[in-house]
């Protein structure tokens, strides 16, 4: 199993988010669903090693995110696009993506070359030399995706990657996602489920810090009679 959460406890500003969370993500492509406040972004932050659980363990392919000696290896193997992507003051778009690759352990030359490749993949190759601070919100989202792609991680964690994108940009994202899925595990948090059956092999539904469904996409759909919305409402309402 790519990601494993074992009895994880985590609180944010004194408010418990996870209490004894145990969860395994399947191989391949997984969509993470749940209402606002369910803990989806926090879960991805834990998987990215941005957050650390107060107790319990997070691992990827047997490598622990919490062991200091293994943390660099863990972060090289995992890419993360957070929900909020901000420009780095004074950097061009290419420099910002290159810097993200360097932080992941790439050489400066490899990161510089890889940044251009990643930007081309998300349709921003023509803006590589523009100041990152002059990008629109949708363009910044794609920079965030490029930052997650640049070091060719074994797994990508994408938090609402299509938020703020127009229909054409979402189509570009879907194309990129299909290409990346051929070489990496994906966990994508999203509210846009129109392509769920085509893009994702597995579904995890999170509600109030607990997984209320984990399994194949076809099993999830059967629970709703073929409707994503009815399946989602069934599992979330069961916890209401």
What does this molecule look like?
Strands 6-7-8-3-9-10 form a six-stranded mixed sheet, sandwiched between helices. The model has no long low-confidence stretch (mean pLDDT 92). The two termini are 30 Å apart. It has a domain at 3-84 and 154-237: Rossmann fold. Helix 3 (93-103) packs across helix 4, helix 3 packs parallel to helix 5 (137-149) and helix 8 (217-223) packs across helix 9. It is of the alpha/beta class. The longest helix has 14 residues, at 108-121. A hairpin with a 2-residue loop joins strand 4 and strand 5 (63-64). It is built from nine helices and ten strands. The protein has helices at 40-47, 68-77, 93-103, 108-121, 137-149, 167-180, 196-199, 217-223, 228-237; strands spanning 3-12, 15-24, 29-33, 55-60, 63-64, 78-81, 155-159, 185-189, 202-207, 210-216.
């Amino acid at each position: 199993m790519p990601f494993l959460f074992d009895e994880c406890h985590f609180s944010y500003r004194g408010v418990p988010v996870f209490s004894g969370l145990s969860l395994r993500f399947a191989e391949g492509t997984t969509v993470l669903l749940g209402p606002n406040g369910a803990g989806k972004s926090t879960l991805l932050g834990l998987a990215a090693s941005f957050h650390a659980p107060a107790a319990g363990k997070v691992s990827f392919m047997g490598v622990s995110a919490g062991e200091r000696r293994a943390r660099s290896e863990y972060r090289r193997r995992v890419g993360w696009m957070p929900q909020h992507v901000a420009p780095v003051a004074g950097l061009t778009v290419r420099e910002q993506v290159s810097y993200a690759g360097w932080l992941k352990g790439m050489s400066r030359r490899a990161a510089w070359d890889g940044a251009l490749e990643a930007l081309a993949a998300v349709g921003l190759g023509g803006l590589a030399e523009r100041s990152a601070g002059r990008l629109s919100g949708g363009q910044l989202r794609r920079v965030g995706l490029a930052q997650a792609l640049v070091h060719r991680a074994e797994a990508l964690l994408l938090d609402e990657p299509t938020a703020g994108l127009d229909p054409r940009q979402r189509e570009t994202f879907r194309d990129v996602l299909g290409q990346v899925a051929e070489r990496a595990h994906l966990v994508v948090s999203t509210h846009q489920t129109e392509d769920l059956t085509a893009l994702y092999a597995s579904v995890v539904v999170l509600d109030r810090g607990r997984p209320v469904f984990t399994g194949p996409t076809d099993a999830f759909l059967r629970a709703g009679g073929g409707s994503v919305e009815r399946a989602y409402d069934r599992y979330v309402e069961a916890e209401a």
